[in-house]
Amino acid sequence: MTPAERMNVMHYLFAAAWADGELAEEEGEILATILSGIDLSDDELVLVRAWFYARPSEPDWEMLKSNAELQEIVVRQAMVLAGSDLSYAVEEVKFLEKLRDLTGMKNEDFQGIWQDVERLLAHGRGSQ
């Protein structure tokens, strides 16, 4: 993944996490884990860390339209974030549907990813 792609992925994921107007504790923990494993410049880290406290600007979605691998990564992680607090707010579902539409992802693929994520989250909930 290029440096620009890594930064955009973080931007997309923070936009997803803030879709319901707040960053839930569980979402913040997931994002902190992702951030700890991603290579960003010092300036990029400062910007991304600010997103823990304030909603980021609307991301540029163009990069996702032409990169199917990146689409799946972002959609899957956005779904994990949305469901991490054990519920999906209406705003989060709308955001996920908007993400599907922005990427041009087929609904069957989108629903398949959602089912996979739901199984993952259900398994995680069962082990608590």
UniProtKB/TrEMBL annotation:
**Alphabetical list of InterPro entries matching this protein:** TerB-like (IPR029024)
Q: Which domain of life is it from?
A: Bacteria
Output this protein's name: Uncharacterized protein
From the broadest rank down, the organism's phylogenetic lineage runs: Bacteria, Deltaproteobacteria, Bradymonadales, Microvenatoraceae, Microvenator
